[in-house]
Design brief:
The chain has helices at residues 3-16, 119-122, 142-146, 203-229, 241-250, 263-276, 292-298, 334-355, 372-380, 385-391, 394-399; strands at residues 38-47, 53-62, 65-70, 79-81, 88-91, 93-95, 149-154, 163-164, 166-169, 181-183, 188-190, 256-260, 280-284, 302-305, 360-363, 416-419, 430-435, 438-441, 456-457, 460-468, 471-482, 485-492, 496-506, 509-518, 521-532, 535-541, 546-553, 560-561. It is α+β, with helices and mostly antiparallel strands and 562 residues long. The chain has two domains: 119-441, Metal-dependent hydrolases (TIM Barrel, Alpha-Beta Barrel); 452-561, Lipocalin (Beta Barrel). β13, α7 and β14 (302-305) form a beta-alpha-beta unit.
């Protein structure tokens, strides 16, 4: 099939779905309808990060701001009222170790001397601003927004000092990566990751290299000061951007996000900070509870990841069991007992740090998306709801340099989420997310749907036939299921490829989103299906049209009935 026929087939099919506007020149482009003049919520409960609760509130959003909020506030005639039962309004979530689309330059390692690697190969580029390497726009922040996350701290990867982090605001209408930047450099990122294939590669070498580079930076600073005082007998000092950043860091001007999980590594961070003088913020902090007294005494914040590993040997107690870890210790094999102890300490980490008075933020651990399940697990092991809310709103917002973005009140930018229940409830959905007044529909329910255990596994390949507006087109779909969640791709030679996103399984019922991308634009189709044996039937809709589909599992494909 020629390229022209492929393009024409795609245009015809998507036009049949009535989801695209075909301009006169024939190029397909998705155009969203203009947003309403105003949004309104009636008789909702507003839960502020400081613990205040306001009931029976009417809230009006216009031109990006909350223009009115309170009991009895009149609803404008031109406002679209967002419906729902027992709605709650919370500050938008802030993921202090989140995810965004980034493209860092690749380092050419061929021909380099292992004992004299350039800084790029060592992963030592403190001057580098991650903000300069963002590639995502508003469309790329959709997953975060549908999970209620309005902002995030994005940290560079790939070495001991790969650069400076960036705070992003997941603006829906951002047309360039720069428009997502909320703070270009909230801090420098360090880790104990050594260079590959050269110095410094070991932990000992990495520590020595940190010390040496800070010493060299201080020396260059002294030379510059002396030259400014009296240049006689001195050459003009050379400018080193890495050293300039290190001097600012050593003087406490720029905080350091330092990745460390074990108690030993956290103590090494504290020792290095004492020697050099920088202000550390621990990232990860799985065993921070073991050094909580020292962290509390120094006032060092911790960004705790709630992306907990799945148990492999220990089977946690089922819902309704009496308290955390209800299984009898003497009934466990040694490996399962060790895993149980490690995981339960990780689950209880946040509560212990809070009790010690440590400034705490909970994060997705760099994975982005919906991390409320991990927060709920930390609450199960002692963290209060109020402390949990602060740990995903005001605390990370302050650490990332955007403290006011989570304030919900009249006159403030409209940055909040609307739920149908307690924010960390198992069945609570994020119905709407507002980022500077731009609304994104969220997820009706958390992964797992109505709580039924999945009775099917859709992992593998499927042959799909889609029907819309009297036309049919075959697709090939590949899915991967993990528990009650699944994702994948669906493609055809004529219509191109769509992402299968936000898939959930409840019993034998599926719910998912198809995302077609066309250049800078994209469109979403919401779909539901039922699986019976090796067959799947379902339907879906978009902004302006409906479709149905039927699918058959490919012979020999993985998955099947559990």
């Amino acid at each position: 099939m020629t390229e022209r026929k492929k393009v024409w087939g795609r245009v015809l099919f998507l036009a049949a779905l009535a989801l695209l506007v075909i301009p006169a020149l024939g190029s397909a482009q998705y155009e969203e309808p203009p947003p309403p003049a105003a949004y309104a919520l009636e008789n909702v409960t507003v839960l502020h990060a400081d613990g205040r609760t306001e009931s029976g509130v009417n809230l009006v959003v216009r031109r990006g701001f909350i223009v009115a909020m309170g009991p009895g506030v009149p609803i404008p005639r031109d406002a679209v009222v967002l419906e729902g039962d027992s709605l709650r309004v919370y500050p938008g979530l802030v993921d202090a170790h989140g995810k965004a689309a980034v493209e860092l330059p690749e380092v050419e390692s061929q021909g380099l001397l292992s004992w004299a690697l350039p800084r790029e190969a060592q992963g030592f580029t403190p001057h580098r601003l991650l903000a300069d390497y963002l590639v995502g726009t508003g469309a790329d922040g959709r997953e975060a927004r549908t999970a209620g996350v309005i902002a995030g701290g994005i940290h560079p990867e790939g070495g001991m000092a790969p650069g400076q982090s960036v705070t992003v605001l997941f603006r829906k209408d951002a047309r360039t990566p720069r428009e997502t930047v909320a703070h270009p450099n909230p801090g420098l990122f360090f880790s104990f990751q050594g260079a590959r294939g050269g110095y410094p590669s070991t932990l000992f070498a990495v520590l020595a290299h940190f010390r040496q580079m800070f010493e060299d930076a201080a020396r260059e600073g002294l030379i510059g000061t002396e030259y400014s005082r009296s240049p006689a007998g001195l050459m003009l000092p050379m400018w080193d951007p890495d050293f300039e950043v290190l001097r600012r860091t050593a003087s406490g001007q720029l905080p350091v996000f330092f990745a460390a999980n074990s108690a030993g590594d956290i103590r090494r961070v504290l020792g290095l900070a004492d020697e050099i003088g920088f202000r550390p913020i621990i990232v990860g902090g799985e065993e921070a509870w073991r050094v909580s007294d020292e962290l509390s005494r120094r006032g060092i914040p911790v960004l705790v990841s709630v992306d907990f590993p799945n148990p492999t040997e220990w089977e946690p107690p089922k819902a309704g069991a009496e308290g955390p870890g209800a299984a009898a210790e003497d009934a466990l094999e040694p490996g399962a007992a060790r895993e149980k102890e490690r995981l339960e300490n990780a689950y209880a980490n946040a509560a212990r740090l809070t009790e010690a008075g440590i400034t705490l933020a909970l994060t997705s651990g760099g994975g982005g998306g919906d991390f409320r399940e991990g927060v709920a697990k930390a609450m199960e092991y002692g963290l209060s709801e109020g402390d949990a809310i602060r740990a995903v709103t005001t605390t990370p917002a302050s650490i990332l340099g955007i403290p006011h973005v989570v304030t919900v009140g009249a006159g403030m930018a409209a940055n909040f989420i609307v739920t149908d229940g307690p924010i960390f409830g198992e069945d609570t959905g994020i119905l709407f997310t507002f980022v500077e007044g731009q609304m994104e529909k969220g997820r009706e329910r958390r992964p797992g749907g109505n709580g039924e255990t999945p009775s099917v596994d859709v992992t593998g390949g499927w042959e799909v036939m889609v029907s819309a507006q009297g036309m049919e087109m075959p697709f090939s779909m590949t899915l991967s299921q993990d528990g009650a969640r699944f994702s994948g791709t669906m493609s055809s030679a004529e219509a191109g490829e769509a992402e299968v996103s936000r898939g959930t399984v409840s019993g034998n019922e599926l719910s998912f989103t198809l995302i077609f991308s066309m250049g800078a634009e994209s469109m979403e189709l919401e779909a539901k299906a039922t699986v019976e044996g090796e067959r799947m039937t379902g339907s879906g809709s978009g902004e302006m049209g409906d479709f149905t589909f039927r699918a058959t599992r490919k012979p020999g494909s993985e998955g099947g009935i559990e």
